[in-house]
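Thread amino acids onto this structure.
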């Protein structure tokens, strides 16, 4: 699904700090600023594209659909009404950015990077795949397990001034199945509602909860029977994947937290990973009719991969319970999430989990 990549906002907000006070990551921020501005320069207003006789009919259909979803986000989900996702950019590549995530050999705790103003995050994003791969190599030399993955969209939190700076629709996701397109738009807009500067798991789980709730509402109220059927098949596999991988994540975490020696942990880890891949092949054959869309993930799976899964899913049930306790009222729900986001991390987590008691 969508991944939050705050590099555009972080870079633009902190570039001045680095330039005036010195910053060891000046090269990183420079590529972030340049990459984000290049993306914005490629964007054109959706109405202009819809009126363009040279634009592809399939693209026009998807753009028109996206605008209905964007309106739905405002009227039904009470998400921000602004210029975000009212323009479209064809980046001529398959990802908006590439994220680098890393974790130790015997831990699922993601390495974090901290940025002036924006706080800390469990990933580092690059607009060029080669730069992401180069940084990943450096991290591996420090004995981290590393994952590099393409990100179809990222949010600038609605904090950049003017309509021209607003997040655009991208070719990297515009042709996704209807249910997935709706979820992505709702997910990214959610990041404009609430953001905790030091808590990737909180931010991503909140956005994932909103995308699930909003996506189901869109499908029920606006989508065709064919779109609902397409989504049901897609989502059934995703739910299988999520349950399966989170169970294996918990097993790995138990191994790492045990009192066994490091050598024993390595042995048990290798056995677990081998068994996981064997069971995945059986699930793919018996439940998915041979669907191979997750083959790449399992081939490259490591501690960093499992750490990312937790960031997007670990707190989702807590947010879903909070939504129910808010009377399924989005305004009340968002207000409570904003209150929690302003708290110190430990207190925030304690109060969020308490909502399910």
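Threaded sequence (357 positions):
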């Amino acid at each position: 699904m969508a991944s939050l990549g705050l590099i555009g906002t972080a870079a633009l907000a902190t570039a001045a700090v680095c330039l005036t006070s010195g910053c060891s990551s000046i090269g990183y921020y420079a590529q972030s600023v340049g990459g984000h501005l290049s993306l914005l320069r490629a964007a054109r207003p959706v109405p202009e594209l819809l009126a363009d006789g040279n634009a592809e009919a399939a693209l026009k259909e998807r753009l028109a659909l996206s605008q209905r979803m964007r309106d739905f986000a405002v009227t039904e989900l009470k998400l921000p009404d602004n210029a975000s996702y009212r323009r479209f950019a064809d980046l001529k590549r398959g990802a908006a950015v590439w994220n680098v995530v890393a974790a130790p050999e015997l831990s699922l705790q993601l390495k974090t990077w901290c940025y002036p103003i924006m706080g800390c995050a469990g990933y580092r994003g690059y607009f060029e795949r080669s730069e992401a791969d180069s940084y990943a190599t450096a991290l591996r030399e420090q004995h981290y397990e590393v994952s590099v993955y393409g990100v179809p969209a990222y949010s600038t939190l609605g904090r950049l001034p003017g309509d021209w700076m607003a997040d655009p629709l991208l070719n990297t996701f515009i042709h996704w199945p209807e249910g997935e397109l709706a979820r992505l738009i709702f997910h990214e807009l959610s990041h404009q509602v609430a953001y905790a500067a030091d808590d990737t798991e909180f931010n991503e789980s909140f956005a994932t909860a909103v995308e699930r709730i909003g996506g189901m509402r869109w499908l029920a109220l606006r989508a065709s029977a064919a779109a609902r059927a397409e989504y049901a098949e897609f989502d059934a596999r995703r739910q299988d994947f999520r349950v399966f991988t989170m169970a294996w994540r918990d097993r790995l975490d138990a191994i790492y937290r045990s009192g066994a020696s490091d050598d024993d942990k390595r042995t048990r880890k290798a056995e677990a990973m081998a068994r996981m891949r064997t069971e995945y092949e059986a699930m793919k054959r018996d439940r998915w009719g041979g669907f191979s869309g997750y083959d790449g993930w399992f081939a490259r799976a490591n501690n960093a991969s499992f750490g990312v899964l937790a960031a997007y899913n670990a707190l989702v049930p807590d947010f879903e319970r909070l939504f129910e306790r808010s009377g399924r009222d989005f305004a009340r729900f968002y207000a409570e999430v904003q209150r929690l986001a302003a708290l110190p991390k430990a207190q925030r987590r304690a109060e969020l989990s308490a909502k399910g008691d």
